[in-house]
Amino acid sequence: MTAAETAASVRPYQSYVYAYPHKTAYRPLRPRPALGELWAGEDQRALSLYLHIPFCEVRCGFCNLFTRIGAPDGLTTAYLDALERQAGAVRAALDGGARFATAAFGGGTPTFLTAAELTRLCDIAERRMGADLRAVPLSVEASPATATADRLAVLAERGTTRLSLGVQSFVDAEARAAVRPQRRADVEAALGRVRAAGIPVLNIDLIYGIDGQTADSWRRSLDAALAWRPEELYLYPLYVRPLTGLGRQGPAGPAADAEWDERRLRLYRQGRDHLLGEGYEQVSMRMFRRADAPGAGVPTGQGDHACQTDGMVGLGCGARSYTSSVHYSFDYAVDMRQIRAIVDDYVARPAEEFARAEVGHRMSGDEPRRRHLLQSLLQAEGASLAEYRARFGTDAEADFPAELARFAARGWLDASAAPELLRLSPEGLAHSDALGPELFSPAVRAAMADYDLK
Protein backbone atom coordinates (compact mmCIF):
# COMPACT_ATOMS: atom_id res chain seq x y z
CA MET A 1 0.00 0.00 0.00
CA THR A 2 1.40 3.41 -0.98
CA ALA A 3 1.64 6.35 1.41
CA ALA A 4 -1.25 8.00 -0.40
CA GLU A 5 -3.38 4.87 -0.06
CA THR A 6 -2.45 4.61 3.64
CA ALA A 7 -3.46 8.22 4.21
CA ALA A 8 -6.73 7.70 2.36
CA SER A 9 -7.58 4.72 4.58
CA VAL A 10 -7.38 6.80 7.78
CA ARG A 11 -10.73 8.08 8.99
CA PRO A 12 -10.37 11.88 9.20
CA TYR A 13 -12.92 12.48 11.98
CA GLN A 14 -12.00 10.44 15.03
CA SER A 15 -11.83 12.82 17.99
CA TYR A 16 -11.78 16.57 18.53
CA VAL A 17 -8.66 17.08 20.66
CA TYR A 18 -9.23 20.34 22.51
CA ALA A 19 -7.38 19.19 25.64
CA TYR A 20 -5.09 16.31 26.47
CA PRO A 21 -5.85 14.03 28.13
CA HIS A 22 -9.64 14.00 27.76
CA LYS A 23 -11.81 13.83 30.87
CA THR A 24 -12.71 10.24 30.06
CA ALA A 25 -9.11 9.40 31.01
CA TYR A 26 -9.58 10.95 34.46
CA ARG A 27 -10.07 8.69 37.47
CA PRO A 28 -10.68 9.25 41.20
CA LEU A 29 -7.50 10.47 42.89
CA ARG A 30 -6.74 8.39 45.97
CA PRO A 31 -5.89 9.81 48.39
CA ARG A 32 -7.37 13.14 47.34
CA PRO A 33 -4.43 15.57 47.12
CA ALA A 34 -4.67 18.99 48.75
CA LEU A 35 -4.73 21.84 46.22
CA GLY A 36 -1.97 23.57 48.14
CA GLU A 37 0.30 20.59 47.51
CA LEU A 38 -0.57 20.46 43.81
CA TRP A 39 0.14 24.15 43.26
CA ALA A 40 3.24 24.37 45.45
CA GLY A 41 6.27 25.10 43.29
CA GLU A 42 4.18 25.85 40.18
CA ASP A 43 4.94 28.96 38.14
CA GLN A 44 1.97 31.18 39.02
CA ARG A 45 3.01 34.35 37.23
CA ALA A 46 0.76 33.88 34.16
CA LEU A 47 -2.13 31.57 35.02
CA SER A 48 -5.36 31.12 33.08
CA LEU A 49 -8.68 31.44 34.90
CA TYR A 50 -11.74 29.54 33.66
CA LEU A 51 -15.21 29.81 35.21
CA HIS A 52 -17.73 27.18 34.11
CA ILE A 53 -21.50 27.79 34.03
CA PRO A 54 -23.31 24.47 33.39
CA PHE A 55 -26.67 25.82 32.22
CA CYS A 56 -28.29 26.15 28.77
CA GLU A 57 -31.77 27.12 27.68
CA VAL A 58 -31.80 24.12 25.32
CA ARG A 59 -29.43 21.27 24.54
CA CYS A 60 -28.42 20.99 20.90
CA GLY A 61 -28.62 17.58 19.27
CA PHE A 62 -24.85 17.32 18.79
CA CYS A 63 -23.85 18.57 22.25
CA ASN A 64 -21.97 16.30 24.65
CA LEU A 65 -20.73 19.10 26.91
CA PHE A 66 -21.29 19.08 30.64
CA THR A 67 -24.46 21.17 30.75
CA ARG A 68 -28.02 20.89 32.02
CA ILE A 69 -31.18 22.34 30.49
CA GLY A 70 -32.65 25.16 32.55
CA ALA A 71 -32.39 25.75 36.26
CA PRO A 72 -35.10 25.47 38.93
CA ASP A 73 -35.76 28.55 41.05
CA GLY A 74 -32.77 29.33 43.19
CA LEU A 75 -30.31 26.97 41.50
CA THR A 76 -28.25 29.63 39.74
CA THR A 77 -27.93 31.53 43.02
CA ALA A 78 -26.91 28.35 44.84
CA TYR A 79 -24.42 27.59 42.07
CA LEU A 80 -22.80 31.03 42.34
CA ASP A 81 -22.68 30.58 46.14
CA ALA A 82 -20.77 27.31 45.62
CA LEU A 83 -18.54 28.94 43.01
CA GLU A 84 -17.64 31.60 45.58
CA ARG A 85 -16.86 28.97 48.21
CA GLN A 86 -14.67 27.12 45.73
CA ALA A 87 -12.92 30.35 44.75
CA GLY A 88 -12.01 30.97 48.38
CA ALA A 89 -10.53 27.49 48.76
CA VAL A 90 -8.61 27.70 45.48
CA ARG A 91 -7.24 31.17 46.17
CA ALA A 92 -5.98 29.99 49.55
CA ALA A 93 -4.10 27.17 47.78
CA LEU A 94 -2.26 29.57 45.45
CA ASP A 95 0.68 31.63 46.60
CA GLY A 96 0.37 35.34 47.23
CA GLY A 97 2.06 36.24 43.96
CA ALA A 98 -0.33 34.35 41.68
CA ARG A 99 -1.26 36.40 38.62
CA PHE A 100 -3.81 35.72 35.90
CA ALA A 101 -2.88 36.44 32.29
CA THR A 102 -6.16 35.34 30.68
CA ALA A 103 -9.72 34.64 31.76
CA ALA A 104 -12.70 32.88 30.20
CA PHE A 105 -16.32 32.13 31.07
CA GLY A 106 -17.59 28.98 29.39
CA GLY A 107 -20.20 26.30 29.73
CA GLY A 108 -22.89 25.51 29.09
CA THR A 109 -23.89 29.06 28.33
CA PRO A 110 -22.53 31.72 30.72
CA THR A 111 -25.10 34.20 29.42
CA PHE A 112 -27.84 31.91 30.71
CA LEU A 113 -27.21 33.93 33.87
CA THR A 114 -29.05 37.21 34.26
CA ALA A 115 -27.22 40.53 34.00
CA ALA A 116 -27.10 40.77 37.80
CA GLU A 117 -25.76 37.22 38.05
CA LEU A 118 -23.11 37.96 35.43
CA THR A 119 -22.05 40.93 37.54
CA ARG A 120 -21.65 38.59 40.50
CA LEU A 121 -19.68 36.13 38.34
CA CYS A 122 -17.25 38.90 37.40
CA ASP A 123 -17.00 39.90 41.05
CA ILE A 124 -16.03 36.34 41.99
CA ALA A 125 -13.30 36.37 39.35
CA GLU A 126 -11.98 39.74 40.47
CA ARG A 127 -12.57 39.99 44.21
CA ARG A 128 -12.24 36.36 45.20
CA MET A 129 -9.63 35.20 42.67
CA GLY A 130 -7.75 38.44 42.10
CA ALA A 131 -8.06 38.54 38.30
CA ASP A 132 -8.11 42.01 36.77
CA LEU A 133 -10.67 41.41 34.06
CA ARG A 134 -10.21 44.81 32.45
CA ALA A 135 -6.46 44.27 32.11
CA VAL A 136 -6.35 40.75 30.63
CA PRO A 137 -8.05 39.07 27.66
CA LEU A 138 -11.52 37.87 28.74
CA SER A 139 -13.45 35.49 26.49
CA VAL A 140 -17.15 34.68 27.04
CA GLU A 141 -19.40 32.17 25.28
CA ALA A 142 -22.99 33.05 24.45
CA SER A 143 -26.01 31.86 22.50
CA PRO A 144 -28.18 34.07 20.27
CA ALA A 145 -31.18 33.80 22.60
CA THR A 146 -29.21 34.87 25.68
CA ALA A 147 -27.10 37.60 24.04
CA THR A 148 -29.41 40.31 25.34
CA ALA A 149 -28.48 43.98 25.56
CA ASP A 150 -28.38 44.10 29.35
CA ARG A 151 -26.15 41.03 29.63
CA LEU A 152 -23.81 42.28 26.90
CA ALA A 153 -23.59 45.68 28.59
CA VAL A 154 -22.35 44.01 31.79
CA LEU A 155 -19.78 41.96 29.91
CA ALA A 156 -18.52 44.94 27.91
CA GLU A 157 -18.24 47.13 31.02
CA ARG A 158 -16.31 44.44 32.90
CA GLY A 159 -13.68 44.14 30.18
CA THR A 160 -14.78 41.33 27.86
CA THR A 161 -12.49 41.34 24.85
CA ARG A 162 -14.00 38.37 22.96
CA LEU A 163 -17.58 37.15 22.63
CA SER A 164 -18.11 33.75 20.99
CA LEU A 165 -21.58 33.21 19.59
CA GLY A 166 -22.74 29.67 18.83
CA VAL A 167 -24.69 30.08 15.58
CA GLN A 168 -23.84 26.75 13.83
CA SER A 169 -25.98 27.54 10.76
CA PHE A 170 -27.79 30.53 9.29
CA VAL A 171 -30.13 28.13 7.45
CA ASP A 172 -33.20 27.48 9.59
CA ALA A 173 -33.77 23.96 8.25
CA GLU A 174 -30.19 22.99 9.10
CA ALA A 175 -30.52 24.41 12.60
CA ARG A 176 -33.58 22.24 13.09
CA ALA A 177 -31.75 19.20 11.73
CA ALA A 178 -29.03 19.76 14.33
CA VAL A 179 -31.76 20.03 17.01
CA ARG A 180 -30.94 23.68 17.57
CA PRO A 181 -34.24 25.57 17.51
CA GLN A 182 -33.52 29.09 16.30
CA ARG A 183 -34.47 31.46 13.51
CA ARG A 184 -32.00 33.33 11.36
CA ALA A 185 -33.77 36.60 12.11
CA ASP A 186 -33.12 36.11 15.82
CA VAL A 187 -29.47 35.23 15.16
CA GLU A 188 -28.99 38.37 13.08
CA ALA A 189 -30.60 40.47 15.83
CA ALA A 190 -28.25 38.97 18.41
CA LEU A 191 -25.24 39.72 16.22
CA GLY A 192 -26.40 43.30 15.93
CA ARG A 193 -26.56 43.58 19.72
CA VAL A 194 -23.05 42.14 20.08
CA ARG A 195 -21.65 44.67 17.63
CA ALA A 196 -23.54 47.49 19.36
CA ALA A 197 -22.02 46.47 22.70
CA GLY A 198 -18.56 47.26 21.32
CA ILE A 199 -16.81 44.04 22.38
CA PRO A 200 -13.58 44.05 20.32
CA VAL A 201 -13.57 40.47 19.03
CA LEU A 202 -16.64 38.65 17.75
CA ASN A 203 -16.31 34.93 17.06
CA ILE A 204 -18.99 33.01 15.19
CA ASP A 205 -19.17 29.20 15.40
CA LEU A 206 -20.41 27.31 12.34
CA ILE A 207 -20.87 23.55 11.81
CA TYR A 208 -20.47 21.55 8.61
CA GLY A 209 -21.77 18.06 7.94
CA ILE A 210 -25.37 18.68 9.09
CA ASP A 211 -27.99 16.44 7.54
CA GLY A 212 -29.28 18.07 4.35
CA GLN A 213 -26.43 20.59 4.16
CA THR A 214 -25.08 21.18 0.65
CA ALA A 215 -22.16 23.10 -0.78
CA ASP A 216 -24.59 25.88 -1.67
CA SER A 217 -26.24 26.09 1.76
CA TRP A 218 -22.80 25.95 3.44
CA ARG A 219 -21.69 28.87 1.28
CA ARG A 220 -24.80 30.80 2.29
CA SER A 221 -24.02 30.30 5.98
CA LEU A 222 -20.40 31.34 5.46
CA ASP A 223 -21.42 34.48 3.59
CA ALA A 224 -24.05 35.35 6.19
CA ALA A 225 -21.38 35.16 8.87
CA LEU A 226 -18.88 37.12 6.78
CA ALA A 227 -21.41 39.93 6.37
CA TRP A 228 -20.74 40.76 10.04
CA ARG A 229 -16.96 40.86 9.46
CA PRO A 230 -16.29 38.73 12.56
CA GLU A 231 -12.75 38.92 13.85
CA GLU A 232 -12.80 35.13 14.24
CA LEU A 233 -14.68 32.20 12.74
CA TYR A 234 -14.62 28.61 13.97
CA LEU A 235 -15.64 25.86 11.55
CA TYR A 236 -16.55 22.66 13.39
CA PRO A 237 -17.24 19.26 11.82
CA LEU A 238 -20.43 17.72 13.11
CA TYR A 239 -19.93 14.71 15.38
CA VAL A 240 -22.70 12.35 16.45
CA ARG A 241 -21.69 11.12 19.90
CA PRO A 242 -23.28 8.66 22.35
CA LEU A 243 -26.01 9.95 24.68
CA THR A 244 -26.60 13.10 22.62
CA GLY A 245 -29.88 13.92 20.89
CA LEU A 246 -28.53 12.96 17.48
CA GLY A 247 -26.75 9.94 18.92
CA ARG A 248 -30.03 8.55 20.22
CA GLN A 249 -31.36 8.54 16.67
CA GLY A 250 -28.93 5.69 15.94
CA PRO A 251 -25.39 5.44 14.57
CA ALA A 252 -24.75 5.34 10.86
CA GLY A 253 -23.27 2.23 9.27
CA PRO A 254 -19.67 1.96 7.97
CA ALA A 255 -20.60 2.87 4.41
CA ALA A 256 -22.56 5.91 5.52
CA ASP A 257 -19.67 6.90 7.79
CA ALA A 258 -17.23 6.83 4.87
CA GLU A 259 -19.61 8.85 2.71
CA TRP A 260 -20.18 11.34 5.54
CA ASP A 261 -16.43 11.64 6.13
CA GLU A 262 -15.87 12.52 2.49
CA ARG A 263 -18.74 15.03 2.54
CA ARG A 264 -17.36 16.72 5.66
CA LEU A 265 -13.90 16.91 4.13
CA ARG A 266 -15.32 18.56 1.00
CA LEU A 267 -17.23 21.10 3.07
CA TYR A 268 -14.18 21.77 5.25
CA ARG A 269 -12.00 22.49 2.23
CA GLN A 270 -14.70 24.68 0.72
CA GLY A 271 -15.03 26.67 3.93
CA ARG A 272 -11.28 26.94 4.43
CA ASP A 273 -10.64 28.17 0.90
CA HIS A 274 -13.53 30.63 1.05
CA LEU A 275 -12.31 32.20 4.29
CA LEU A 276 -8.71 32.38 3.07
CA GLY A 277 -9.98 34.17 -0.03
CA GLU A 278 -11.87 36.64 2.16
CA GLY A 279 -8.77 37.78 4.04
CA TYR A 280 -8.76 35.35 6.98
CA GLU A 281 -5.71 33.48 8.21
CA GLN A 282 -5.91 29.88 9.36
CA VAL A 283 -4.83 29.39 12.99
CA SER A 284 -5.83 25.73 13.31
CA MET A 285 -8.10 23.23 11.60
CA ARG A 286 -11.09 24.99 13.19
CA MET A 287 -10.00 28.56 13.86
CA PHE A 288 -9.77 31.35 11.30
CA ARG A 289 -8.86 34.93 12.22
CA ARG A 290 -9.39 38.05 10.14
CA ALA A 291 -5.98 39.27 9.00
CA ASP A 292 -6.51 42.77 10.45
CA ALA A 293 -8.11 41.57 13.71
CA PRO A 294 -6.59 42.03 17.18
CA GLY A 295 -3.97 39.34 17.71
CA ALA A 296 -3.54 38.57 14.01
CA GLY A 297 0.02 37.68 13.12
CA VAL A 298 1.00 36.95 16.73
CA PRO A 299 2.16 33.33 17.14
CA THR A 300 -0.14 31.35 19.43
CA GLY A 301 2.61 30.40 21.86
CA GLN A 302 3.96 33.92 22.37
CA GLY A 303 2.99 36.60 24.85
CA ASP A 304 1.95 36.30 28.46
CA HIS A 305 0.20 32.97 28.10
CA ALA A 306 0.99 29.71 26.33
CA CYS A 307 -1.33 26.74 26.73
CA GLN A 308 1.54 24.26 26.78
CA THR A 309 3.43 25.75 29.73
CA ASP A 310 1.12 27.73 31.98
CA GLY A 311 -1.36 26.51 34.57
CA MET A 312 -5.13 26.56 34.26
CA VAL A 313 -7.26 27.31 37.31
CA GLY A 314 -10.82 26.12 36.76
CA LEU A 315 -13.84 26.98 38.92
CA GLY A 316 -17.20 25.26 38.55
CA CYS A 317 -18.35 21.67 38.41
CA GLY A 318 -17.39 21.21 34.74
CA ALA A 319 -14.06 23.05 34.82
CA ARG A 320 -10.62 21.49 34.58
CA SER A 321 -7.48 22.67 36.34
CA TYR A 322 -3.95 21.95 35.12
CA THR A 323 -0.76 21.77 37.10
CA SER A 324 2.46 20.33 35.74
CA SER A 325 1.92 17.10 37.68
CA VAL A 326 -1.87 16.60 37.77
CA HIS A 327 -4.88 17.60 35.66
CA TYR A 328 -8.01 17.52 37.80
CA SER A 329 -11.72 18.31 37.81
CA PHE A 330 -15.00 16.93 39.14
CA ASP A 331 -16.89 13.95 37.77
CA TYR A 332 -17.93 14.02 34.12
CA ALA A 333 -21.19 12.94 32.48
CA VAL A 334 -23.23 13.41 29.31
CA ASP A 335 -26.57 11.96 30.45
CA MET A 336 -28.92 14.65 31.73
CA ARG A 337 -29.88 12.80 34.91
CA GLN A 338 -26.23 12.24 35.84
CA ILE A 339 -25.33 15.86 35.12
CA ARG A 340 -28.12 17.11 37.37
CA ALA A 341 -26.85 14.87 40.17
CA ILE A 342 -23.30 16.22 39.81
CA VAL A 343 -24.52 19.84 39.80
CA ASP A 344 -26.66 19.18 42.88
CA ASP A 345 -23.66 17.63 44.65
CA TYR A 346 -21.49 20.61 43.71
CA VAL A 347 -23.87 23.24 45.09
CA ALA A 348 -24.25 21.34 48.37
CA ARG A 349 -20.52 21.17 49.13
CA PRO A 350 -19.05 23.07 52.09
CA ALA A 351 -15.96 25.19 51.52
CA GLU A 352 -13.55 22.61 52.92
CA GLU A 353 -14.64 20.06 50.28
CA PHE A 354 -13.17 22.32 47.59
CA ALA A 355 -9.68 22.27 49.09
CA ARG A 356 -8.78 18.89 47.57
CA ALA A 357 -8.75 17.54 44.03
CA GLU A 358 -11.24 14.78 43.30
CA VAL A 359 -10.76 13.16 39.89
CA GLY A 360 -7.92 13.63 37.46
CA HIS A 361 -4.92 12.30 35.60
CA ARG A 362 -1.32 12.34 36.80
CA MET A 363 0.95 13.83 34.14
CA SER A 364 3.82 11.40 34.64
CA GLY A 365 6.23 9.76 32.19
CA ASP A 366 6.02 11.19 28.68
CA GLU A 367 2.53 12.69 29.08
CA PRO A 368 3.79 16.31 29.28
CA ARG A 369 5.82 15.76 26.11
CA ARG A 370 2.81 14.32 24.30
CA ARG A 371 0.62 17.20 25.41
CA HIS A 372 3.13 19.84 24.35
CA LEU A 373 3.75 18.29 20.93
CA LEU A 374 0.07 17.64 20.29
CA GLN A 375 -1.09 21.13 21.21
CA SER A 376 1.76 22.78 19.30
CA LEU A 377 1.52 20.65 16.18
CA LEU A 378 -2.23 21.18 15.78
CA GLN A 379 -1.64 24.93 15.40
CA ALA A 380 -1.06 26.12 11.84
CA GLU A 381 2.18 27.86 12.90
CA GLY A 382 3.65 24.49 13.88
CA ALA A 383 5.79 23.15 16.71
CA SER A 384 9.18 24.68 17.45
CA LEU A 385 11.73 21.92 17.96
CA ALA A 386 14.00 24.36 19.80
CA GLU A 387 11.24 25.20 22.32
CA TYR A 388 10.55 21.51 22.84
CA ARG A 389 14.25 20.84 23.40
CA ALA A 390 14.59 23.76 25.81
CA ARG A 391 11.65 22.57 27.87
CA PHE A 392 12.30 18.83 27.98
CA GLY A 393 15.99 18.46 27.19
CA THR A 394 15.24 15.94 24.44
CA ASP A 395 14.35 16.02 20.74
CA ALA A 396 10.74 15.57 19.65
CA GLU A 397 11.85 13.59 16.61
CA ALA A 398 13.73 11.15 18.87
CA ASP A 399 10.89 10.95 21.38
CA PHE A 400 8.17 10.24 18.78
CA PRO A 401 9.91 8.75 15.73
CA ALA A 402 7.17 6.30 14.71
CA GLU A 403 4.34 8.83 14.94
CA LEU A 404 6.19 11.57 13.06
CA ALA A 405 7.33 9.09 10.39
CA ARG A 406 3.70 8.05 9.81
CA PHE A 407 2.59 11.67 9.55
CA ALA A 408 5.34 12.42 7.04
CA ALA A 409 4.53 9.32 4.96
CA ARG A 410 0.90 10.37 4.73
CA GLY A 411 1.85 13.85 3.53
CA TRP A 412 0.62 15.47 6.74
CA LEU A 413 3.88 17.32 7.49
CA ASP A 414 5.01 20.36 5.53
CA ALA A 415 8.29 19.33 3.90
CA SER A 416 9.10 22.98 3.13
CA ALA A 417 9.06 24.06 6.80
CA ALA A 418 12.23 25.45 8.38
CA PRO A 419 14.61 22.82 9.84
CA GLU A 420 13.68 23.65 13.45
CA LEU A 421 9.93 23.58 12.79
CA LEU A 422 7.40 20.76 12.60
CA ARG A 423 4.43 22.13 10.70
CA LEU A 424 1.38 20.45 9.26
CA SER A 425 0.65 20.59 5.56
CA PRO A 426 -2.82 21.72 4.45
CA GLU A 427 -3.86 18.04 4.37
CA GLY A 428 -2.31 17.51 7.79
CA LEU A 429 -4.45 20.33 9.20
CA ALA A 430 -7.49 18.86 7.45
CA HIS A 431 -6.80 15.56 9.26
CA SER A 432 -6.14 17.08 12.70
CA ASP A 433 -8.89 14.94 14.24
CA ALA A 434 -7.07 11.81 13.07
CA LEU A 435 -3.55 13.00 13.78
CA GLY A 436 -4.22 14.19 17.34
CA PRO A 437 -5.45 10.83 18.70
CA GLU A 438 -2.34 9.08 17.33
CA LEU A 439 -0.29 11.03 19.89
CA PHE A 440 -2.33 9.71 22.83
CA SER A 441 -0.33 7.49 25.17
CA PRO A 442 -1.29 3.80 25.52
CA ALA A 443 -2.36 4.47 29.12
CA VAL A 444 -4.69 7.30 28.08
CA ARG A 445 -6.12 5.23 25.23
CA ALA A 446 -6.85 2.35 27.61
CA ALA A 447 -8.44 4.64 30.21
CA MET A 448 -10.67 6.31 27.61
CA ALA A 449 -11.73 2.95 26.17
CA ASP A 450 -12.53 1.65 29.67
CA TYR A 451 -14.52 4.72 30.69
CA ASP A 452 -18.15 4.07 31.57
CA LEU A 453 -19.84 6.97 29.76
CA LYS A 454 -22.86 8.18 31.68
Secondary structure elements and pairings:
Blueprint (H helix, E strand, L loop, with lengths): L2 H6 L18 E2 L6 H5 L7 E7 L1 E2 L11 E2 L5 H19 L6 E8 L7 H14 L9 E5 L6 H9 L4 E7 L3 H6 L6 H14 L3 E8 L6 H12 L5 E6 L16 H24 L2 E3 L4 E4 L21 E4 L5 E2 L3 E4 L6 H12 L11 E4 L4 H11 L5 E2 H8 L3 H4 L1 H9 L11 E2 L3 H5 L1 H4 L6 H9 L4
Parallel strand pairs: 2-5, 2-12, 3-4, 5-6, 6-7, 7-8, 8-9
Antiparallel strand pairs: 1-15, 9-11, 10-11, 13-14, 14-15, 16-17
Helix pairs in contact: 3-4, 4-5, 8-9
What features would you describe in this structure?
This protein is an alpha/beta fold. It folds into two domains: 22-290, Alpha-Beta Barrel (TIM Barrel), CATH 3.20.20; 367-447, Orthogonal Bundle (Arc Repressor Mutant, subunit A), CATH 1.10.10.920. It has helices at residues 3-8, 35-39, 75-93, 115-128, 149-157, 172-177, 184-197, 215-226, 254-277, 336-347, 367-377, 385-392, 396-399, 401-409, 426-430, 432-435, 442-450; strands at 27-28, 47-53, 55-56, 68-69, 100-107, 138-142, 162-168, 201-208, 232-237, 280-282, 287-290, 312-315, 321-322, 326-329, 359-362, 383-384, 421-422. Helix 3 (75-93) runs parallel beside helix 4 and helix 8 packs parallel to helix 9 (254-277). The protein is globular and about 55 Å long.
